[in-house]
């Protein structure tokens, strides 16, 4: 009928993270480990750069791909840190955050009937975005015993003639797992053998611990042309509200992304782009400071969780999330989290918010204060002790 709505949008589930956030919004006395957002404000030099851009009259439309100064800064950063050269004129596009960068990338290559390999547990929008394109998400398990990262044999079994894209998120939200160089080489070989693209979501690349090294898949021989690399300023520079991300790939794919970006948003907020230029080219002390704080908090929360009877937690290799195993509580992760809110005033995210392979776990963001971590662990310990397990 003429007044019907898009059933694919109706079928896309709302994020359970936001559901939990909305449930507790405005309630007093709760201790929260919910949103994936730094508890730091954006550095003053970045804010000042955006203010100067406003004062200088940078308040008009710019090219769909983003201001050249930012694309050049991204190109320099990728060459320096990730050992890949992307042409700032044709192979880089600035988007409205990492989320739009992912969405544009998917739209550029996915066709109805395609299959997309999705990590499980996954960042919740991945499968919904795939379904909106009339394609099929195929969830590939990333198990605790595999370090919460792909097992190449499981990946190989999941590939079919309809496989168009593999989503690689390293470091991974929600688990903190990371792909090492050997796995990346195996993924690259499989992608070339079976002829599919890889979208490499690298928004947590600077939040890495214990000497682990982030390696971009596109830096491997023969992978730049079939890899779409997505990144953002949100996590590394505490710029979540600025909504500046970027996508990098071959000129052919970026041309498609630019066309879609023009239709959806015209361009990314211009003063925010000038702030992003300063983020990449200015003083990097703030990045090191935040990583130092996360490193210390990571040890606090992981040690604290492992000291609680019935709970265990593998130390995340990256991100600012602890993905704790709560199977010892003998209830679903959803029931566990609801009871935590009602009985302990503690808010965490149930693992099934990230798909079926997250069941039995909870995600706790440690991008929070020391006091929050200490109080949260105390409340969790008291809750678990009452279960008599």
Automatic annotation (TrEMBL):
Single GO MF annotation: transaminase activity
Keyword Transferase belongs to the record: yes
Span of domain Aminotransferase class I/classII large: 31-380
Keyword terms: Aminotransferase, Pyridoxal phosphate, Transferase
Listed CDD domains: AAT_like (cd00609)
Coiled-coil features, chain-numbered ranges: none
EC numbers: 2.6.1.-
InterPro entries to which the protein is assigned, alphabetical: Aminotransferase_I/II_large, AspAT/PAT-like, NHTrfase_class1_PyrdxlP-BS, PyrdxlP-dep_Trfase, PyrdxlP-dep_Trfase_major, PyrdxlP-dep_Trfase_small
One GO biological process term: amino acid metabolic process
Cofactor: pyridoxal 5'-phosphate
Family: Belongs to the class-I pyridoxal-phosphate-dependent aminotransferase family.
Protein name (database record): Aminotransferase
